[in-house]
Write a structure and sequence with these properties.
Layout: H1 21-42, E1 48-50, E2 53-55, H2 62-70, H3 73-90, H4 100-116, H5 124-152, H6 166-198, H7 225-246, H8 258-262, H9 267-297
Antiparallel strand pairs: 1-2
């Protein structure tokens, strides 16, 4: 009786898109620092007001969109909104406490979904789509919540005389302007160009393999019931925090408002903090790359 040879275990090659804990932390902190620096810049940009409508740059969406397109979308998406909280709200003394969680959840979700749609950052239409989807989720959910607060009665609306349904028009116009300004002009257009130019050049500096369609990023958002349920839960969670803030639940509020006290020059404090953190990231990336090279030579 002949014996069949035991089947040889299949060799599993490492996923080039899998990251070490150090690399995940670098992506998180880099995204936090760059978006924090971008939001410092938006603080000095002018704002225009047409009656109850405010025209302004909410944020430079191309900065976090490039990050979630080039690197792991989860860690980049979590770091970006935290950068605004740390380097702008906290350091500038304008932290609204528990209310900050509303924007954090909305923007993180939008960036994560948008970044997960990108399979090849060199394809500009994928990155542009990611930018528009991210802003669509962030500002769309925020607009629905704002209208809900008015309808429930926890917040007063800016009514326009002669237009009984002006709250819908105001929120619709605000969403449209945010989508056009932040989502397209300062989002899709520059993000598509920058991601294509930086793809394959910045990732090796941090010891990471560039993203490509052949090796999808593990842990990206998937179109299944579990993720949809999670997304709905996060949206409802952001609504809860928004309603708590509107109901004057002040938990963790810190508002000394250093800008009003010391002037716009105080923004340089945040800039200096960003530079220090960025220098730390550069040193960490250099050390990690040197350590990986030494291991390869051994």
């Amino acid at each position: 009786m002949t014996k069949t040879a035991p089947s040889r275990a299949r060799r599993v090659l490492p996923d080039p898109q899998s990251l070490t804990s150090s690399q995940k932390l670098m992506v998180f902190v880099l995204s936090m620092t760059l978006f924090g620096l971008a939001n410092i810049f938006t603080e000095i940009l002018p704002e225009f007001r047409l009656g109850p409508i405010e025209l302004s740059v909410s944020y430079l969406a191309f900065v976090p969109v490039v990050m979630v397109s080039l690197f792991h979308p989860l860690y980049a998406a979590l770091g970006a909104p935290l950068g605004e909280i740390v380097f702008v709200d906290l350091l500038m003394g304008n932290f609204s406490g528990i209310g900050e969680l509303e924007g954090f959840l909305q923007l993180s979700l939008g960036l994560y979904v948008g970044g997960s749609l990108v399979r090849d950052p060199s394809r500009k239409w994928q990155v542009a789509t990611a930018a528009m989807v991210a802003v669509l989720i962030d500002k769309g959910v925020g607009g629905v919540i704002d209208m809900s607060k008015v309808l429930v009665g926890v917040e007063d609306a800016e009514w326009v005389e002669g237009l009984p349904e002006s709250i819908l028009l105001i929120e619709g116009f605000a969403f449209g302007s945010d989508f056009l300004i932040s989502g397209i002009l300062f989002g899709a257009i520059p993000a598509a160009y920058l991601a294509a130019r930086l793809h394959g050049k910045i990732e090796p500096l941090m010891g990471m393999a560039p993203r490509d369609a052949e090796h999808p990023v593990p842990g990206r958002a998937r179109q299944n019931a579990a993720f949809i349920a999670l997304a709905v839960f996060l949206m409802l969670g952001s609504a809860v925090f928004a309603f708590l803030e509107a109901a004057d639940v002040k938990f963790g509020v810190w508002e000394p408002d250093f800008i009003d006290e010391f002037g716009a020059g105080f923004l340089w404090i945040s800039v200096a903090a960003c530079v220090v953190v960025f220098a730390g990231i550069a040193l960490s990336a250099t050390a990690l790359r040197r350590r990986n090279r030494d291991r390869t030579e051994d």
